[in-house]
Design goal:
It is a single chain. The protein is mainly alpha-helical. The protein has nine helices and three strands.
Length: 232
Amino acid sequence: MTLSLPSVQRSKSLYEQTYQALRTSILSGELLPGERLVETQLAEQLQVSRTPIREAMRQLQRDNLVTTDRGGGLRVTIISVADAMQLYDCRIALEKLSVQEACQNATAGQLETLESLVIQAEQLMEQPELRADSIRMLEIDYKFHQFIAESSGNRWLSTFLDQVFDKMSMLRVQTTRHNPRVLEIRSEHRQIFESIAQRDSDRAIQSIQDHLVASKARVVQEVESLQSEAAE
């Protein structure tokens, strides 16, 4: 295991720096779901002692980003089918409110930003080989949904969605490695944006629900497939 991360900077708490470095690696997919985490290797890679590694691991366990396996070792969390379904159910409830309030409160500048994110996704999806850019697509997808929440004017909504998105990032990394097309979102994002731009809250709510229900079906199917392969 080799992480393409710089050694942590001494200007801040070693624990905080270590935690953030490991958290970023997990959410970006550099540390893959199910990957074993060895203190000595991580300490050497990040050029810190094992103490901040242990402290960071405890926090990552509290965040449910790291779990203990049957042998007592630590591994990056694998999102189950049940977890995937529940996470999407949470997203659907939160994002229906998000688009409804964005229809009421989004500024002209925020609508321009949303449209630019839609265009970026459309352009990226036109590339013949998406696999190399699946992380970029995940970033655009996250920014699109999170910016809608920001446009709603409801700061608590953004906070709650961020917590869900952390787990969703792991789920999407877990599935897109095997099937990048699980992120087929071009027409869905376009429909959501146009509904918000037209201040049509009923259509926006229906569009976001249709989008997330379709995404849920694709992702859950992929997780089920991966679990079946692992069981063979």
